[in-house]
Amino acid sequence: MTAPPSPATEPAPPANPILWADPQRAAVFEGWLAGIAAAHRLLPGTVRLASADASFRRYFRVDAAEAAGTRIVMDAPPDKENSEPFVQVARLMAEAGVTAPRMLEWDRPNGFLLLDDLGHQTMLDVIDPAKPDASRPLYDQAIDALIRWQLASRPGVLPPYDRALLERELALFPEWYIGRHRGIAVEGQLKERLDRSFKLIVESNLASPSVYVHRDFMPRNLMVRNDADLGVLDFQDAVYGPITYDIASLMRDAFLSWDEEFVLDITIRYWEAARRAKLPVDADFGAFYRSVEWMGLQRHLKVAGIFARLTLRDGKPRYLADTPRFIAYIRSTASRYMELTPLLRVIDEIEGSSAITGFAYGRV
Predict the structure, then answer these.
(1) Pairing state of beta strands 70-75 and 231-232?
(2) pLDDT tens, position by position, 78-88
(3) Pairing of strands 103-107, 58-63
(4) Residue 196 and residue 189: Cα distance in Å, rounded?
(5) Rounded to whole angstroms, what are the CA distances from 298 to 118, 153, 182, 214, 336?
(6) Are 272 and 144 in contact (CB under 8 A)?
(7) Are 58 and 115 in contact (CB under 8 A)?
(8) For a disulfide at 111, which of 76, 195, 262, 355, Cβ 3.0-4.6 Å?
(9) What is the pTM of this model?
(10) Contact by Cβ (8 Å): 209, 243
(11) What is the pLDDT of residues 228-255, one digit of tens each?
């Protein structure tokens, strides 16, 4: 990484300049950044776009003078994004001993936050799905962070991942993926099959003990920091819900897929660590893995719906390109359990049938 310019050096124009749809908001941002620059040794002329996500949030990177490194600015328009959960969960993560960005400044009325910079490399950037053995140490670090986060759990602190939320999330799949993306009417036998399957999925998920849930605990949101612990990002949607959710999210990723042997290996490692930590996981791994699969199934259905919505409503088509991965996850899990045969038939009807091979745990 190139060292930031010294205070005496005129910074070069940023390589990834920021584009603003609202000139007034741009002016407010420039004024705010200039106002805090001295206190944090920032070089406002170096600010550039770092990333944008599926929401209305954007992230900028700005250099700091001398050896102070870089900082991240979150741009979260308050009429579209509520930054309160981000600030709350960042504090909870710090209390849990999990590395997350510290909030250094917050312009609450305008939705600008100055944060620690946890680096440029995500876990997704550095792992190679063709080399699971080389990736295992990073997954062990991810498990360590997840265990610390779950051990800090307390009821009544974060919103509950309850029946109403689970059902709202599942409803995204028939509305956006089947109805709007595939153009298939959700009625008659198709609707009856979905309703029956969704009820079983919700009941299974609600049966799991509750802990803090990140909700997007996956390699794209985990930052590799040399010899330090992994940093955790994108945690603002955290809830209090099924202990199975985050390990399902980690091993059934939105942006890469592993062979099932590796998925099982890492899931067993998590389960063993959770048992040592006295977390409330099932004493029988087969029962636990079934719960993880059914939790993952809920997530896959939700995400397929969200990715279709991002394309059709929000004009972000790059997400829809990853939906085949989720359809494969859904079909694979539904094929293992006889009670999910109605869901498998729905997927075959809207996608076309495909043979499934793999392990079959907990099949009835």
Answers:
(1) unpaired
(2) 999 999 999 99
(3) unpaired
(4) 10
(5) 31, 22, 19, 15, 15
(6) no
(7) no
(8) 76
(9) 0.88
(10) yes
(11) 789 999 999 999 999 999 999 999 987 8
